[in-house]
Design goal:
Strand content: 15-25%
Oligomer: single chain
Number of helices: 3
Structural class: alpha+beta
Number of strands: 2
Helix content: 40-55%
Order of helices and strands: HHHEE
Largest sheet: 2 strands, antiparallel
Length: 73
């Protein structure tokens, strides 16, 4: 599961647009949808707990890494 989380995080980092669960499933053919959703939830929670410069934002039916608003300036 840790590898899946890291792969999804990497994909989110380089994606030019929000990634949907369906799109992630097409890329990660060996991973089921439930595992993808769990990984996204875990990533979101880790970013929330860490309170670093980024957070996982649900947008346009998908997910995107964004800069925390307090660090935008």
């Amino acid at each position: 599961m840790e590898d899946i989380k890291n792969i999804i995080e990497s994909l989110l980092f380089v994606a030019e647009e929000p990634l949907t669960v369906d799109r992630l499933k097409r890329i990660l053919t060996h991973v089921d949808t439930t595992e993808i959703r769990q990984a996204l939830n875990d990533i979101s929670e880790e970013y929330r707990e860490r309170k670093g410069g980024f957070y996982l934002y649900p947008v346009a039916g998908g997910y995107q890494l964004r800069t925390r608003p307090e660090y935008t300036p």
